[in-house]
Design brief:
The chain is an alpha/beta fold. The chain has 5 helices and 5 strands; from the N terminus they run H-E-E-H-E-H-E-H-E-H. The protein has a 5-stranded mixed sheet with strand order 1-5-4-3-2, with helices on both faces.
């Protein structure tokens, strides 16, 4: 499933991602410890985090995340949005909790994988 299709199906707001919207999202990874994400997230994951600082773009690029998902309507820093856009990283915003995003995404991605 493409990031832009995922975002639409989940009712998420796309903050950046004109270039990254065509990436395939193959799983979900939820974690806020950046060093842990760097060593455990998989290429193609939609990464859920409450962090909104500039390092988020760097970690997403390093892990080859399909996108960054910011839950609970948390505002993302403008510098992060700008850097992510420059790097072709999609940042999605959702009013849902991390749990609810994981639950719905599992059902959505699982249905498309079958």
């Amino acid at each position: 499933m493409k990031v832009k299709e995922f975002a639409q199906s989940m009712g998420m707001k796309v903050l950046t991602g004109e270039d990254g919207g065509d990436k395939d999202i193959t799983g979900i990874y939820a974690c806020d410890l950046l060093s842990w994400v760097m060593s455990h997230a998989c290429k193609g994951d939609g990464w859920i985090t409450v962090h909104t600082h500039l390092n988020v773009a760097a970690v997403a690029l390093l892990t080859e995340a399909a996108c960054v998902i910011v839950p609970e309507g948390i505002a993302v820093e403008e510098a992060t949005v700008k850097k992510a856009a420059e790097e072709g990283i999609s940042i999605l915003s959702s009013g849902l909790s991390s749990y609810e995003i994981c639950y719905r995404a599992h059902r959505l991605i699982g249905e498309n994988e079958a």
